[in-house]
Request: fold
Amino acid sequence: MTTDYGISHEQARAKLHTGRRHLNGGEAKQLDAHLAGCAACRAYANYVAQAEPALTAALRAQWDPAQPPQSARAFAEQVRARLIRPQRALPNWLSDAGVTLAVGAALLVLVVVWIGSGWGVSTGGPQPTEIVVESFPLPEVTAVPLSTPSPSPQSPALPAGLLSRWVTYLVRDSQNRDSVYVMRTDGRDGQRLTGLPETLGYDHNLVWSPDGARLALVSDRSGHPEVYVAEAGVWAARQLTVTPPGAIADYRVSWSPDGDWLAVTALSNAPDPSWFGGSIYLLDPNADQQPFPAGAAPLATRVTDPAQWSPDGHWLAYGAPDANGVPALFALEVSAVLTGANSQVDLPYRQLTKFPSLPEGSHDIYLGFAWSPDSRQVAYLRQGPWVGAVLSATLGAGFNASIEVISLDDPDALPTTLLDFDPSPNGIMGLSWSPDGAHLLYLSDAVTGGTTSTGCWTLRLVPSTGGAATQLDGFCALSRSTLPRWSSDGRYLLLATETDLAVIDLNAVLADPAQVQPGYLTNQPPGLAHSPAWQPRP
Amino acid sequence: MNQLASPALLARCQAGDDHAIAELVAAYRPALFRLALSILDDPAEADEAAQDAFVQALRALGGYQGAAAFTTWLYAITINVCRGRLRRRGARERLRQALAGLWPLTVHASVPEAQAVQAESRAAVSAAVAALPEPQRLVVVLRYYHELRLGEIAEILEISERTVHNRLHAAHAKLRGRLAGEVDAR
Reply:
């Protein structure tokens, strides 16, 4: 009911709840007029004015001091593990007896969860069905002696130059913790480096220096993420950064081609939820215990894809939102920064992708990028249009996907389309360029020429001069985020399958892509082997 | 609330990309943890609820229509997860009471320190909020702890803005009597 004061008592209360700072001039005048004529409303207004700050202060005092019990790293790892594990096919290493045990355990867990959830009381909302799926465990870490990974009886036939190389990889145990392992490509000298009692903590993001002499890694063995460097074969890690506890959630590193610098993308742990993305800094890999970030302005901020150094050392490519908030690729002329040709406030960067805004706020996005070996081009997977945060296909409209290449020779160059998917699969990820420049590689779980997911992520090779993609059949890649690694001559690919680490010979593959016979480096590793990388040079 | 979750980042999260998930978690976990904590009042359970919410959100990303801010959508999922946990707590409490009827359980008396804390004004305010019925408590917490606008609260709880006002008014009617001394003392 509207009163003589222009608005009803209920409307006046609503405006008080809304807060004066959110009222426009007219609404504030209406409220003031109402309060002037309503004593009860004035009393309520006085109460609200005092109660609101009291409530905020009391609730802050109650909850602000509390901190989450897990580190950001562990939390993210568990989210990822819960996301990817149900989508994996049951591994071959689970025997029939193992399957029986796992299903039995699943039923037991199901019953326990049901009882624990309140005797079958409906909880409303989406149910966490992943509880049941998670009862299929990773293999027990005690199944194989931890420090002696077995050489595979199906070792790949590799040339002598590759046989002496180190391969690093991570093994995830049943507690979703990664340990670092190394071995020679012929299976010799296998050992577990971290995850031992004296090296507790997560070690991850292993990146070989271009000369193969050093290995950069990120570890939270000190309690929070720091960047380390270890000498190949010695493996004793030197701590490069000294980060204030809690300041950084994670690091990603990329070596400069001359090995003199590390481009570090630091993902902040800032509690402000409006913050987004990381910042890029340069780090001297020869100096220990550097306070970080050491007050220097970052080369880039709001970074959503970590920096990757171009093979010639001239550029750093990274992903960040453009001026319109559309995900875009940028290239920073880092050589000009290192020579002091540009000040920190006038950094020479170039926006490589410029996806136009489409109707209804939609736009295309990129999914992964790769430098050409000559550093003159960047290839990326393009997909769209996206509406908000979903592909238009999920809203019933069509969408497009392609592999495009942009040249850095000409700042005004337009991208060329290397491969236009027709129809466009949803499941395409990652992109890498072979060291000889002959091929681009990506992963897809869609049937060839279709959009239907097969549940098996396979490698697809595209000639860099254009043409149809070749699907490499015969095995499934483990993870869409664990990209295969090329040998320096571009002939071999090292990758994680769903069971073991494997190497494939592209000469044989291209002769008969339907019958790919990987050679296996590992033999039932004591957990989920992933993220392999081989030493660039012996 | 921010709306900066880029489609590319979400796509990579769905695909299990480590870096993308780490970014998403870094960007949203603090807010989701605080939200879950303010409903469950238990840091360990709040962290579990935040993780459940992330997993459910990433699995259900195809159902996100983009009409609401991504954060609003995440908040709504988190609140559903927390409500489920509260209901399970209620069921467990009923079970505990049923068992207590069969076997005497040790009941811990309130310790003097806890009583002292209870006597402090802020604790009294918090206790008064905790005593509100869940629908009113949620609105109060979202409004005065998370400092969300009423329109955002309505969107998250999938109720009308008028219902938000009504719940706030009903909450204040209860709090006013209990907090009179606390408010006057400020």
Q: What stands out?
A: The radius of gyration of chain B is 19 Å.
